[in-house]
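Support request, please re-run this one:
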Amino acid sequence: MYNFISFIGIFILMAIAWMLSANRKVINWRVIIWGTALQLIFALFIFVVPAGSKVFLFVNDAVVKILESATAGTKFLFGRLALPPGAKGEAGEESLGFFLAFQALPTIIFFASIMAALYYIGVMPRLIKAFSKVFTRLMKISGAESLSVSSNIFVGVEANMTVLPYLNTMTRSELCTILAAGMSTTASNVLALYVFMLQGRFPTIAGHLVSASILSAVAAIVISKIIMPETEKPETIGINVEPHYEKESSIMEAIIKGANEGVKMVVGIVALLLAFLGIVALVDYILTGTGTAINNLIGIQMDWSLKGLLGYLFYPFALIIGVPPSDAFEIAKLIGERAVLTEIKAYQDLSVLLSSNTLKDPRSAVLAAYALCGFAHVASMAIFIGGTAALIPKRTKDLSAVGFRALIAATLATLMTAAVAGTFFTNGSILLGK
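Re-run finished. Output below.
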């Protein structure tokens, strides 16, 4: 029954996007039909077809092995602080517990270097071009936006650098699409952070997050083209575009540059968490104080924390994507938390729910993993608009105008990805683990 609800949820989410559309009379049916079909075919291959299951497990194991290699540097620098809970060091010393700063965040630097090396040797440009050609040919969107969307499957805000020569002439619909894709997918280096936090309780989380990022890229195209349909003529419509990429002089330079970019990202994440967690704590203090008085006055019990209030807002969406009612409010709170406190805090709280066995149905954890996989939050919107505006300052007004619509599109896209995963969920599938 819940699989059917998830399937219907895909179309309900598209209907919600249509109600929020800037132009409801302009519908690109080719984007909707092919975008939905691509998601369903990909999910069917990964979660149902035996060969696809093997690919899924191979990707999952590969990411986990690479992640284990990443801990070598953290253990050397931080000693026992770098040991994950339950682990022992070479000298037999035991872990002191989980420390985000010493165990998870440093993996971002390692993965940033790996990605830079893969760019240098040509692996990443080929992968990005392959995805871009599929999007351009089947959905008939512009080559520039399909290239940017494809880049976002693997990298973050820097994905727009691949289409730098075309940014200034992009239509508002194209700008909305590239912003939505950026906020609905997740960079591979940050993906490592999520894996580190959840892998102990969720053995196949790495494979899920990779597939979620691919699915969300397609979902972002579908939802953004409904919310901000194309009413102009893009410069690169139906044309395959080559990635704009400044290659380093050597692989060592690429690795060093990647590591430095990883450090900047870690500093940015730390700054955001320090600022937003503090602000939300202050807001919660005010809300819960006011809420307690209201509860006493009207004689009911409500969760007046910001996370709780957002949970009420996203509760219908949790049901729409196929989360069982017994867990829907907990998952809704995580989705709401992601919108304000970033996906890092939401994944951390998902890990806590798994550790405490709070979730009653394993389906809920799987759908949450997909729904949270993306940068669809307020801070990210500012980062993506600001980062893109720095490249094309003349289009700052247009970027600001479509920014909030792109955030809504990204949020609906990640929920759509969860609904697609929920459509193929079975209690005996690899979705649950090995």
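Residues 105 and 218 are 28 Å apart (CA to CA). The first helix runs from residue 2 to 19.
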